[in-house]
Amino acid sequence: MTITASRTAHRRRYLMCRPDHFTVRYSINPWMVPSRPTDTGRAVRQWQALYDAYVALGHEVELIDQVPDLPDMVYTANGGFVIGGRAYVPSFRYAERRPESAFFARWFAEHGFEVVEPAEVNEGEGDFLLVGDTILAGTGFRSTGDSHREVGEVFDREVLSLTLTDPRFYHLDTALTVLDPVEGPDAVEHATIAYLPSAFDATSRGILQERYPDAIRVADLDGDAFGLNAASDGLHVFVSPRATGFAAQLAERGYRPVPVDLSELLLGGGGIKCCTLELRG
Ligand code: ARG
């Protein structure tokens, strides 16, 4: 089946953090092996290529400085969840990342966002993805089910809880991509997603199947290459160059894959989407 549709690029505003102090010194996901050497210079070059690709395609990128002792701060998707100028701050599962919250909260406050402190453990846009007017929320490894209720209250939106079961895909954004980042009720019928079925439990697969019958189901090989950890503006999809099958599926649907290699950042268990937080004004 070939679905031809005209896609539209929507200008995004993102928050990123240059990996000036990137390293892997602890392990909180299966990708992180502290004994494996990392190359900070290479991480910075790869990150810069992503930054440049965003800017070249018209997106606005804000920056937060990396705190030297917080190597995972580069994964800004975990720095919050932002809709309508309101920033819901993360409360990290693991002690190693907990100090990041205060730095992200301060950044939001200084840039005019309304800051909402969380009561529940949640890892921001790593586990919360906005599709139209619905928040898809991941649990199983990091964010708790209680945070799903909390995020729904904070933004007064419907929340669909999804359970992740494969430790390699521990955040929702490692297993599901929002391809149409348009907000509001009108957007819902156009909102397309892609996901890795094998990363979810049976109940969640059922929910996804029912709610998004037209979704792109991505093969395990592309998931393993961190292909789902992608960012989309509605036309361009910034995606791992190793996820070739997914790229072909995207092209067939009228999207334009933009390959960006973040293999060095993957040593920390993160990719394109992890390094990107949507700032919805
Ligand atoms: N090392 C980080 C962690 O385990 C990677 C976070 C990746 N971020 C994401 N949004 N998936 O927390």
Question: How does this model look, in words?
Answer:
The mean pLDDT is 96. Helix content is 22%, strand content 19%. Strand 6 and strand 7 (134-139) form a beta hairpin. The chain has helices at 40-56, 100-110, 145-155, 202-211, 220-224, 244-252; strands spanning 13-16, 60-63, 81-83, 86-88, 114-116, 128-131, 134-139, 159-163, 176-178, 193-195, 216-217, 231-232, 236-239, 256-259, 277-278. It contains six helices and 15 strands. The strands form five sheets. It has a three-stranded mixed beta sheet, covered by helices on one side. Strands 3-4-5 form a three-stranded mixed beta sheet, sandwiched between helices. Strands 6-7-8 form a three-stranded mixed beta sheet, with helices on both faces. The protein has one domain (13-278): 5-stranded Propeller (L-arginine/glycine Amidinotransferase, Chain A). The chain has 281 residues and is α/β, with parallel strands linked by helices. The chain binds arginine (ARG). Arginine (ARG) is lined by residues 28-29, 32, 72, 75, 77-78, 97, 126, 171, 173-174, 268-270, 274.
Short synopsis of the structure:
The protein has 281 residues and is an alpha/beta fold. Helix content is 22%, strand content 19%. The chain has one domain (13-278): 5-stranded Propeller (L-arginine/glycine Amidinotransferase, Chain A).
